[in-house]
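Human: Not sure, check this?
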Amino acid sequence: MGFLLAAKVWHYWLSFAIFGTVVLVLIAYGIGYLVKVTSNKYPKQ
């Protein structure tokens, strides 16, 4: 098990890409929700 812990980590940058994607998706969901809710509450005339 010691050799596994001593392995050189080269793929840590994937976590930044995944985290950034998750943050952007959450922001998109929030904006989409607000657009849908406000468009029903204040319809175009």
Notes: Residues 16-45 form one domain.
